[in-house]
Amino acid sequence: MMNYLLITLSILAIVCLLIYFLSNKSKKAIAIIGRLFLGSVFIFSGFVKLIDPLGTNYKFIDYFESFGLEKFLSLTLLLAIIMCVAEFLIGISLLFSAKIKTGSWAVLLFMLFFTPLTLYLAIKNPVPDCGCFGDAVKFNNWQTFWKNIIIDAFVVIVFISKNKIKFGFSQTLQWFIIIFASLFGTWLSLYCLMHLPIIDFLNWKVGARLVPENPKPLMYYATYKNKSTGEKKEFLSQKIPMDTNFLNNWKWDTTRIIDPNEIKYSGPSITDEDGNVVTDNFIKNPDYQFILVAYDLSKTNLKSFEKMSKFYLESIDNNYSFITLTSSTPEKVKTFKKQNKFNSEFYYSDDTGLKAMIRANPGLILLKNGVVIKKWHFNDFPTYDEFKDKFLKQSK
């Protein structure tokens, strides 16, 4: 699907370039198309990353580690927010013709940096997903590079035309638009950092069904091998030919089983301290299931565990399952539980998977029968009474 989209946009970019350079009458129209296209792309790209600053930060960390820049990891969150605000601001400038000359230079410099970088990423593939559109739209590294080539075509058109673009607003109003967009983008990013993304693109978003609603039977596929030619054919078990001719010429070779009820999310596997996989015990719990995600106990918000300690005890007293997921070692877990007087059962998973469940450390997730009911950032943790008033009374 992405390849078809890129091919279509490539054709559009080539046509626009040809028309712009070969037809004087259409230059203005093509310049407007290019400006609106670039503005929309940059606003979308900046926005989807602004509302998920931690996700953007995680991607920056991946890049910094792959380039051996570990000593700058403390700056990744700040750099992620600055880049996303700048990208959003460039889009606003282009779309509304606000300080368009500055915006044209900014988009040119932006693409002069990122186009060679994405070519390097496509060739070396140090990080498989570029993260250019956050978790909203996924591109591999080669798709990202060709996407940037398409954008570059429109950048050329807009940059050449920058002195001919008429301003739709006064200088004062243009400055107001730029300043407002800067403040709004910064506020939005900080708000989502201190709470949760206002739009969740993760597989564990609220309302997501993690397991099938109606269980289906296992599907058995049998492979038969021709006795004479060695040819192999696979049949669904219910459709295996059972006539004499088939049985005389073919013999059974292998069988594979497909479970249509397999968990559909690309989330983490949950294991106990001994390494036993217990994912289904909690994901498929037909009753309310609390999962407190603290991917790294050494970096988690300790104060929030005071509130969760009481919440945990009340939920257990009312026969609701409550577990804590972490990627920290069992030794660190034991020390943490003792120091913080937090007695929840701990289970284990990889930190990448836990970060993809919720953008908080810690963050609380409420499931029921394989569906994500609610998610809370540690700044917004509810009391047990609040949970009871909102969810238990509604279910009566």
Overview of this protein structure:
The protein is α/β, with parallel strands linked by helices. It has 3 domains: 2-194, no CATH class; 219-258; 279-395, Glutaredoxin (3-Layer(aba) Sandwich), CATH 3.40.30.10. It is built from 13 helices and 8 strands. The two termini are 45 Å apart. The model has no long low-confidence stretch (mean pLDDT 89).
| Number of H/I helices | 13
Q: What is the 3D form?
A: globular
Q: What is the terminal-to-terminal distance?
A: 45 Å
Structural class: alpha/beta
Order of strands, widest sheet: 6-5-4-7-8
- The amount of helix comes to 40-55%
In what range is the share of β-strand residues? 5-15%
How many extended strands? 8
Question: What multimeric state do the chains show?
Answer: single chain
Any idea what the radius of gyration is?
Answer: 27 Å
Q: List the domain count as a whole number.
A: 3
User: Which spans of ≥5 residues are poorly predicted at pLDDT below 50?
Assistant: none
The main pleated sheet reads as:
5 strands, mixed
